Fold this protein.
Amino acid sequence: MKKIAITGISLVTPLGLNKNENWNSIQSNISGITKAEGFRVKTEFQLYAGEIKSLINNKKDKWLQIFNLMMEDIKVTENITDDFIVDSGLSLGSAFLGMEAYKFFNFHTFINKIRQKWKFDCGININSNTCAAGNFALFNGANMIRSGYAKKVFCIGIDILSEYLFSGFYALRTISKGVSRPFCFGRDGLSLGEGGALIVLEDYEHAKKRGARFFCEYAGFGSSIDNSSLTGMDRSGRGIIKSFKRALESSNTSIDQIDLISAHGTGTKINDETEAKSIIEFFKKKTKITVFKSYTGHAMGASSIISGAFLCLSIKYGKVIKINNFFDPEFDLNYAEKNEDKRINFAVNNSFGFGGINSCLVLKGVNL
């Protein structure tokens, strides 16, 4: 099976408008979750969210603006040319593509504008697998390379905040009345967020030949579908554990080799309990756990690829980032309670979505 390298990363989140701003902010444990300013949703409590403050007044084409910001950033940081982009594929993941401000747009509107500006002659793939869409974008991109459609694929996940999303999650009673506290006693819900991440997957030998910078390797992926309810997961954890097992099998990795888990960690009662119990049951040793959502908020379909991008940087630079707003933990897990320098050989990125869509991505340090 072809080896796949990760040779480019960009991020646009509440922490910054490019990769370097985001990495510097999260290493400094700066939270992007603040009082919501861009929405008129009537609630009995103050809303907090991971808003990109500099884009609050942009009520038109915010999705495309985030897309283009990441593309321009990666051209500079990784010295990528327009010809390189044209001769690449694109794998998109977004739960709410087409929902902006008070309007809904056909997703073809976005795809046509992307094609006009960036081409992507090796094809465009899109998925909307709820909050796991970003992980699936990486899985689909890897399949495009392994099947011979492309030598490199730009994997991108983006979702943006709107009144509709706030109202929907508020109706489900899943929004925190303060700021999300993953895996803690007293947690009362999630903090919504917005933004996106871009990860370039590339055929390993192709990347090596052109002298690309390697962040880490895409090692494997596992998924399952609980199909137990419209919005919830199977509380037994069977589906989650199945995705863990398939991910490690596909990457030929053992449980003992995993050094870091990027947890889904939404901060809701049921999700955190189910994920925690599944991790305890499957990962026999106490693997270190972090939650990147605790800094950015839950950016829906983009959340898993945002966490994936931070996880790639953690592997590259040997940094474990502590969980933010974390105290009084409920479950017996090995939480990252402080920043730590650590060699990370293998790491997993968990993401679970509506409909019981479970996913687990395995990343691997280079030269192992």
Summary: The chain has a mean pLDDT of 94. Residues 220-364 form a domain with the Peroxisomal Thiolase; Chain A, domain 1 fold (CATH 3.40.47.10). The two ends are 17 Å apart (CA to CA).
